[in-house]
């Protein structure tokens, strides 16, 4: 079921729109870390693995979208440029959000990709589509704990923690998740460090009343490598006098 098709809780099989849902288990199975990883495996989507986003400015210079903003260096249906604002829109819990903050599976239960003009259900109206992130919530009935650690061949590492605890069963629960990630690159001295913290509370004071609140802190320091080769933009200008 999804809310991305009609704003109502509907079965995917009953919707005429092109919508794909990526579950938490799928994200774990494919070891994705961001939206560009998700786009590697879905139809009509392109991320940094198979698409280089760049925009020429009025002087002939090139804006490197992959190095400057990899969270938006992607596209759906081959349309739009994220830097110009006409590309992929990102929503969290069906509400438009800051697309410069990258998606991370540490606090996401699923990803809903809605292709085409159906995205105007969210008031965004892009022709490419919308990506709706379904955030994790505290569990009122049971405790959950998970810790993960991974390394790569570029001297990068990632540690994540996820804890959910019911304080009063069926009434009050909290959830805490955190990520510490360091990315390595072939080109030196490029590097990127990410620290994220997420907290959520769910309360059910009455049978038909549920209250959810969440908070996230995101810190990112980086010196990313260029994804484009250098370009001479002065020789032609000098030659023209």
Q: Would you kindly provide a written description of the structure presented here, covering whatever features stand out?
A:
This protein is mostly beta strands. The chain has four helices and 14 strands. Strand 3 and strand 4 (62-64) form a beta hairpin. The longest helix has 6 residues, at 24-29. The model has no long low-confidence stretch (mean pLDDT 86).
* Overall average pLDDT: 86
Task: Look at the helices and sheets and give the structural class.
Answer: mainly beta
| Topology order in helix (H) and strand (E) letters | EHHEEEHEEEEEEEEEEH
What is the count of β-strands? 14
User: Unreliable stretches, pLDDT < 50, 5 or more residues?
Assistant: none
DSSP helical segment count? 4
Amount of beta strand = 35-45%
* Termini gap: 64 Å
Percent helix: under 10%
Q: How are the strands of the largest sheet arranged?
A: 1-8-9-6-7
Radius of gyration: 20 Å
Main sheet overview: 5 strands, mixed
Shape: globular
Defining traits:
five-stranded mixed β-sheet, 241 residues, mainly beta, 8% helix, five-stranded antiparallel β-sheet, 14 strands
Produce a short descriptive summary:
The protein contains four helices and 14 strands. It has helices spanning 24-29, 35-39, 65-68, 235-239, and strands at residues 18-23, 45-46, 54-56, 62-64, 75-76, 89-92, 95-96, 108-115, 129-135, 144-151, 157-168, 172-184, 191-206, 209-223. A hairpin with a 2-residue loop joins strand 13 and strand 14.
């Amino acid at each position: 079921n999804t809310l991305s098709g009609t704003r109502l809780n509907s079965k995917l099989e009953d919707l005429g729109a092109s919508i794909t849902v990526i579950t938490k288990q799928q994200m774990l199975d494919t070891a994705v870390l961001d939206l560009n990883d998700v786009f590697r495996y879905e139809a009509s989507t392109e991320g940094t693995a198979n698409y280089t986003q760049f925009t020429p400015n009025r002087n002939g210079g090139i804006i490197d979208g992959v190095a400057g903003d990899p969270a938006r260096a992607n596209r759906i249906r081959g349309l739009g440029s994220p830097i110009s604002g006409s590309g992929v829109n990102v929503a969290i819990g069906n509400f438009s959000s800051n697309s410069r903050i990258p998606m991370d599976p540490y606090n996401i239960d699923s990803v809903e990709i809605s292709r085409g003009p159906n995205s105007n259900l969210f008031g965004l109206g892009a022709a490419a589509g919308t990506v709706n992130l379904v955030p994790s919530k505290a569990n009122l009935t049971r405790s959950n704990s998970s810790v993960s650690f991974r390394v790569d061949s570029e001297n990068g590492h990632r540690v994540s923690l996820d804890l959910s605890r019911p304080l009063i069963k069926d009434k009050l629960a909290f959830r805490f998740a955190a990520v510490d990630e360091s990315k390595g690159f072939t080109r030196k001295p490029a590097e990127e460090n990410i620290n994220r913290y997420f907290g959520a509370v769910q309360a059910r004071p009455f049978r038909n009343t549920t209250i959810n609140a969440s908070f996230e802190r995101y810190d990112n320091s980086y010196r990313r490598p260029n994804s484009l080769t250098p370009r001479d933009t002065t020789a032609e200008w000098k030659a023209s006098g």
